[in-house]
Design a protein that fits this description.
This protein has 285 residues and is an alpha/beta fold. The chain contains five helices and five strands. Strands 3-2-1-4-5 form a five-stranded mixed sheet, with helices on both faces.
Length: 285
């Protein structure tokens, strides 16, 4: 159907408004991305120090025992997957990619009972329509990193493992590489697997088992904090890219509409001139 000049003008105004919105959202997301990147860098540095200490301890004291190190059963029939998605959209294929990874994990472990702990409304709205057991959800975070939320999730996962409701605990999340790249990952969280044996002997007080009672929960908590910071950083990175592409698309569409509007206006003016000349010739005739 041919468009009228009024319709084209209306579309131009609509696209201009959309371009302003997407540009503003791009700038807001970019502003929020910077502190998230800094927080992620600090979290990773702290976590790697804790991980190094734990690996040294477990590598030196092979006989150390702790409930977080113990495998729950030989069959490992009960698996728990913690999935980290976003609460809001407008971040491209970010949520679709991580949800698809979680679906692959569930499919590959179809012989086991897989339950879910879900972070973010997008993952929750997707999986609650499936025939799966959701044992916990954390929503309305909106990408605002919080140690309190991360610690709450960590305690929940530890409780599920220690109570025997889960033989193994995994986390599906996105790992930040750069402002334009991220990697989909599924990491095993529990049970904590021992490190390779080393020849270094450490002197510890009061004893290694008591130290592990404090060190292992700290390790799990710091890992969950880092994973959550990783995922939120990737979310805003994906949103910056998505809004930048949307702004570029709006700009291209706007250029095409403005060109069409100008052509229609010129055609309208030309038609009016032709009518005037035709009327003048008729009066002369």
């Amino acid at each position: 159907m041919a468009q009228s000049l009024r319709q084209v003008r209306s579309r131009v105004k609509s696209v201009e408004n959309i371009k302003k919105i997407t540009r503003a959202m791009e700038m807001v997301s970019a502003a929020r991305l910077k502190p998230l990147e800094k927080n992620l860098s600090n979290s990773k540095e702290y976590f790697l120090k804790i991980e190094g200490i734990l690996n040294d301890a477990l590598g030196s004291f092979r006989s150390a025992k702790n409930s977080l190190l113990q495998e729950k059963s030989n069959n490992k029939d009960k698996k728990l997957l913690c999935l980290v998605t976003s609460d809001t959209g407008l971040c491209g294929s970010y949520n679709n990619n991580i949800i698809r990874l979680a679906e692959d994990f569930i499919y590959k472990n179809s012989s086991s009972s897989v339950s879910l702990v879900i972070v973010g409304k997008k993952g929750l709205s997707f999986f609650k329509k499936r025939d799966l057991t959701i044992v916990g959800s954390y929503t309305e975070i909106y990408g605002h990193y919080s140690k309190a939320i991360a610690d709450k999730i960590a305690r929940h996962l530890i409780e599920m493992f220690l109570s025997g409701k889960a033989d193994e605990v995994y986390v599906a999340y996105t790992s930040f590489i750069s402002a334009s790249r991220y990697k989909l990952r599924i990491d095993k969280l529990l049970n904590v697997e021992g490190a390779k044996a080393n020849d270094v002997e450490y002197l510890v007080e009061p004893d290694i088992n008591k130290i592990l009672n404090d060190l292992l929960p700290l390790y799990i908590t710091s890992k969950v904090r880092t994973l959550l910071a990783d995922a939120f950083t990737c979310e805003y990175s994906a949103r910056v890219i998505a809004m930048s592409e949307a702004t570029d698309n709006a700009r291209e569409l706007l250029d095409a509409l403005v060109l069409l509007r100008n052509k229609m206006r010129q055609a309208h003016i030309t038609g009016e001139i032709i009518e005037i000349i035709s009327s003048a010739d008729a009066l002369k005739g």
